[in-house]
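During the no-cost extension, the postdoctoral fellow (Dr. R.K.) reprocessed legacy sequence entries with the updated structure-token encoder. One reprocessed record is reproduced below for audit purposes.
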Amino acid sequence: MAYEHPDNETVRQALKETKTIAVVGLSDKEYRTSYQISKEMQDAGYRIIPVNPMVDSVLGEKAYASLLDVEEPFEMINVFRRSEHLPALAKEAAQTDAKIFWAQQGVMDDEAYDYLKDHDFTVMMDMCLKVAHAVLM
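Re-encoded structure tokens follow.
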């Protein structure tokens, strides 16, 4: 099935239910989009958990090599990786307790979408988390 954006109420509900966001591909470089958006979400009250094997910590939080290494609960996975990485990340995501998968603007994959929907995820792709939060919350 081809990806379809969820309606605004579904997105709003996902943002309301989320307290902690695991950010895959979060950079420790302040000029990177992943850093800027995660910082904005942290400033809005969300806890950010960096998932990037190349860094030790970002935004004052310990970084983990993969979603499966994260030792604390999180509701949302926010992805800053290229689209071709989404199928593998979807399979990793399904092994966590999270049920919200968010791929940033320009990032989408129908195979990953189908897999995540089959595993009861709310899925947003090709959508900026910061913009959706600013508009809907």
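The domain at 8-136 is CATH 3.40.50.720 (Rossmann fold). The CA atoms of residues 79 and 103 lie 5 Å apart. The remaining legacy entries will be reprocessed before the final report is submitted.
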